[in-house]
Amino acid sequence: MSTSEAKTEKPWGGRFTESTDAFVEAFTASVAFDRRLAPYDIQGSIAHATMLAEVGVLTGEERGAIVDGLNAILAEIEAGQFPWSVSLEDVHMNVEARLTDRIGLAGKKLHTGRSRNDQVATDVRLWLRAEIDALINEVKRLQEGVIGVAEREAESIMPGFTHLQTAQPVTFGHHLLAWNEMLERDRGRLADCRKRLNRSPLGAAALAGTTYPIDRARTAQLLGFDGPTENSLDSVSDRDFAIEFTAAASVIMMHLSRMSEELILWASAQFNFIDLPDRFCTGSSIMPQKKNPDVPELVRGKSGRVFGHLIGLLTLMKGQPLAYNKDNQEDKEPLFDTVDNLFGSLRAFADMVPALIVKREVTREAAMRGFSTATDLADYLVRKGVPFRDAHEIVGSAVRLGVDTGRDLSEMKLDELRGFSEAIGADVFEVLTLEGSVAARDHIGGTAPNQVRAACARARALLGEG
Ligand code: ARG
Fold first, then answer.
1. 94 lines ligand 1 (CB under 6 A)
2. Homologous superfamily of 21-112 in CATH?
3. What is the pLDDT of residues 84-133, one digit of tens each?
4. Among the options 2, 268, 284, 397, which is catalytic?
């Protein structure tokens, strides 16, 4: 990028008598990062020029020259041949100056009835809307993977945990469907944020609107917005949509981080519940035996920077009086970084989850070891007329014996169990098995394999609805 143009080249240079300090020029410029908005800036300008021609502010000929010029500039940008200039500050002035270079007088008329303030607010909304659509698709792709594994592992037994202590047996499929619920809410949050974002600030101009007979509903329509924003001051200063999006992104990253934590635990030699395929892991340069779960670890780590961006954007906005302030230029890098890291994390998960290998014997063994059917024995005693508190006490004594003799409840003799309570009969072994335990939780939201399969079908249907 070149930095050494004369002062007169600045589109706003008319009232200035000395050129910008070279450091200040670089310090205040945003083109190094906001050039990413160029396709949306051009889209917004084409809509604006089209509307101006329709209301008679531009001629049809001028509009034609502007649209052709902007399309040529887009091609130039895509080909990497656009002469970006730091002295032209930002993407908006770079594109506009180039347009005037190419088409002359008509290019100078494009900025009639608008300002960079409503322009940038429009550009960021258009860009973020497209990113949200892509992110929603990526969440969906991950959900499809999660539901697929849930269905495959609908009968696989694992210990369910509370306090990370073995609690009750669950099916692996049931556990994964808990992940799917998180993702389903995440998808809803993105869609919800998109709704509020989808209004057009174009026409608010610098802050107070414009004296030209503009048609804001028309530009909103041309750009696929649901309609124009209501108040011009709010339109140029509002960044709620960016904050809402980053909040939704933070919740997704928090969820992915929790999933990562589980994958990392499960892949450890101590748990040994799953195998992560080699292509999602890396080795150690010094310890030859190592296979590290780098992908989930990195996703867990990236959650921190996304949360940071949320706090950064809230802090960016909290002290700003109406309307536009240059502070707002600082909204872009956190947003871009949030989108890039969220997208990368979702993509890594969507690729990795379907390839998880569940070690069913190990997870079953682990459920067996932790007396996970103790609650089932207590419930059995209650069904035989024993008050729950007494049943709890009886089972506690049986577990004590199990701990002392290294056996699960299902491995004890009937006589031994009857020693704890006369109410116990030969049918007790049906409830002490892991399969019996999960099958008995046979209601909506329960872990029984047939409930897991039904829940998978419902989850798939929701994905199909959009
Ligand atoms: N680069 C600026 C931004 O990102 C564009 C708007 C500049 N407006 C202004 N009045 N200086 O916010």
1. no
2. Fumarase/aspartase (N-terminal domain) (1.10.275.10)
3. 999 999 999 999 999 999 999 999 999 999 999 999 999 999 999 999 99
4. 284
Domain at 117-364: CATH architecture: Up-down Bundle (1.20)
Q: How is residue 287 written in tokens?
A: 């310890």
- What's 319's DSSP letter? T
Global pTM exceeds 0.90: yes
User: Cα–Cα distance between 466 and 400 in angstroms, integer?
Assistant: 52
CATH 1.10.40.30 intervals, the chain: 370-465
Output Rg (C-alpha) for the chain, integer angstroms. Answer: 31
* Assigned superfamily of 370-465: Fumarase/aspartase (C-terminal domain) (1.10.40.30)
Q: Ligand 1 centroid vs 398 CA: distance in angstroms?
A: 72
Question: Which of 25, 88, 117, 238 to probe ligand 1 with, by most ligand atoms within 8 A of CB?
Answer: 117
Query: How many other C-beta atoms lie within 10 A of the C-beta of residue 414?
Result: 12
The stretches of 153-237 forming alpha helices (DSSP H) are 172-197, 216-222, 232-237
pLDDT for the residue numbered 4: 45
Q: Does the C-beta of 345 come closer than 6 Å to ligand 1?
A: no
User: Is residue 117 in contact with ligand 1, taking CB distance under 6 Å?
Assistant: yes
In this structure, how many other beta carbons lie within 10 angstroms of the beta carbon of residue 333? 15
pLDDT, tens only, 395-434? 999 999 999 999 999 999 999 999 999 999 999 998 999 9
In the chain, ranges of CATH 1.20.200.10 domains: 117-364
| 254 closest CA partner among 336, 185, 356, 161 | 185
Residue with tokens 């536009």: 324
How many residues are present in the chain? 466
| Spatial contact of 199 and 225, defined as CB atoms under 8 Å apart | yes
User: Quick one: pLDDT at residue 451?
Assistant: 98
Those residues whose C-beta lies under 8 Å from the C-beta of residue 426, and which sit 6 or more positions away, are: 414
What tokens appear for 330 in the block? Answer: 């600082």
Examine the residue annotation and report whether 92 is marked as an active-site residue of this protein: no
Burial class (CB within 10 angstroms; exposed 0-12, middle 13-18, buried 19+) of 445: exposed
Cβ–ligand 1 contact at 124 (below 6 Å):
no
Residue 90 alpha carbon to ligand 1 centre in Å: 8
**Where do you find CATH 1.10.275.10 in the chain?**
21-112
Question: Does residue 180's CB lie within 6 angstroms of at least one atom of ligand 1?
Answer: no
Distance between CA atoms of residues 299 and 258, nearest Å: 10
